[in-house]
Design a protein that fits this description.
Layout: H1 13-25, E1 29-34, H2 39-52, E2 79-85, H3 89-98, E3 101-103, E4 112-117
Antiparallel strand pairs: 1-2, 2-4, 3-4
Length: 118
């Protein structure tokens, strides 16, 4: 599993960098925790989620949903997960949606940001 902007779709990388700068200008430290995922990693997250209701068996704090294999926007490089300090996910999500994109907070995954249109 990658946490690098360079592993996102090349046409999306500059937009992610601008979003991170926007968050930083508001005093928010944003750390990318996941970008592109292999099918095997997505399957492991999905299996964990189906078994426990949580996608992070062994990955650290937090409990978030996982898409089934073949349905994750992480697999195509158009999604990223963020850790925010302070944890202003609602405000960050509104800003992301104002740019015309999808925020995972609408489906119980507040750390998820992707490039699907609203």
């Amino acid at each position: 599993m990658s946490a690098s902007i360079r592993d996102l779709d090349k046409s999306k990388q500059s937009l992610v960098r601008m979003f991170l700068r926007f968050l930083a200008s508001g005093g928010v430290r944003a750390t990318i925790t996941s970008t592109r995922r292999s099918p095997a990693v997505q399957k492991a997250l999905w299996d964990c989620y189906r078994k426990t209701g949580c996608s992070n068996c062994r990955r650290g704090p937090g409990c978030f949903p996982a898409a089934p294999p073949g349905r994750s926007t992480h697999a195509t490089g158009i999604a990223f997960d963020l850790r925010l300090d302070p944890p202003v996910y609602e405000a960050a999500g509104r800003a992301w949606e104002a740019a015309g994109f999808t925020w995972g907070g609408r489906f119980d995954d507040p750390i998820h940001f992707d490039f699907r249109p609203l």
